[in-house]
Amino acid sequence: MGAYILRRLLLMIPTLLGIMAISFIVVQFAPGGPVEQVIAQITGQGGGADARISGGGGDLGNQSFSGGSVEGSGVTSKYRGAQGLDPQFIASLEKQFGFDKPPLERFGMMLWNYARFDFGESYFRDISVIDLIIEKMPVSVSLGLWITLISYGISIPLGIRKAVKDGSTFDVWTSGIVIVAYAIPGFLFAILLMVLFAGGSFFDWFPLRGLTSDNWESLSWPARILDYFWHLALPLTAMVLSAFATTTLLTKNSFLEEIRKQYVITARAKGLSERQVLYGHVFRNAMLIIIAGFPGAFISSFFTGSLLIESIFSLDGLGLLGFRSVIDRDYPVVFATLYIFSLMGLFISLISDITYTMIDPRIDFDRRDV
């Protein structure tokens, strides 16, 4: 197992390099980069970023420019909307953002810094990238952790029960409920919950913003816990609606496949009870495929699955941070979150494989090619 873990760790390096290289190349061809964002902010053409660039004149909104110097010299800017701006100012912007260096050199510097977990500072926020991620982490941790635990806590017992009662009225009705729940978009259900229970047209029982109340610091610990889950009640309900459907059906089918195998018939013939057969023999084998799906489910709920929910319930988490960073072309935040999330995903996948061997010692990855 040790050799397999070492090979997997070594393979993470080219995997990360490939992910970062492809993303970096795509960004080079994407219009509306940070320089264009600042130009649009200055010229009043829009731009999602609230640009505050230190150096070269301080607040860009207070800069004055001479249009004649550009037009008279016949210089054509490579940036959209930059006609009439001082070429020296454009050059200072490129230097500020690091675009005065060749792409290959910028990519090499980024990899060297990321290898040392130095992610720099946000282009458009006066804060380091790592501090910004840590600031947004509690929301995503809360949503991702609880939705994973709740969905698996519902899916596994329900899937086992459906397998045992295969073809019964219980199985048919629960399958219908699961499929309908899966078909309902989470964001539409979130809006319905907000209208019904968060001060819409009916009841005002739950809050709509943040993870805690304004007076959270003054509350006792039991009151803080209740306040925390009070804020999470509606977002988690909206997310869990469809989160357990796939795992439930996967659990049922996996158990059905194992129940029909010869070793189960042999165990029953020996006089073992159904509970002993189910949890002493079937459970370990049937759960392997569920464990295989855990990393994907965790990554999805932790990083990507909460974007719309965060927006609807005004929860400022990593999903919303990543989306806004892409819109604003805040590349340090975009690449840092991509690097961190990819690295975590690779480690979680490795942990999943190790868990395989803990549940079923017959699996030996050292005898296989990676």
Report on this model:
It is a single chain. By secondary structure, this protein is an all-alpha fold. It has two domains: 31-118, no CATH class; 130-367, Orthogonal Bundle (MetI-like fold), CATH 1.10.3720. The chain contains 16 helices and no strands. It has helices spanning 2-29, 34-43, 67-73, 87-97, 103-115, 129-164, 169-183, 186-197, 221-243, 245-259, 262-269, 274-292, 294-304, 307-312, 318-328, 331-359. Helix 7 (169-183) packs antiparallel against helix 10 (245-259) and helix 12 (274-292) packs antiparallel against helix 16. Mean pLDDT is 78; it is low at 51-76.
Tell me roughly what share of residues is in helical segments: 55-70%
Beta-strand content: under 5%
Q: What is the domain total for the residues?
A: 2
**Second-tier CATH architecture of the largest domain:** Orthogonal Bundle
CATH superfamily of the largest domain: MetI-like
How many distinct helices?
16
Order of helices and strands: HHHHHHHHHHHHHHHH
CATH secondary-structure class of the largest domain: Mainly Alpha
CATH topology of the largest domain: MetI-like fold
Work out the radius of gyration. 27 Å
**What is the terminal separation in angstroms?**
12 Å
- Spans where pLDDT lies below 50 across 5 or more residues: 51-76
Task: Give the structural class.
Answer: mainly alpha
Biggest sheet descriptor:
none
Mean residue pLDDT: 78
Global geometry: globular
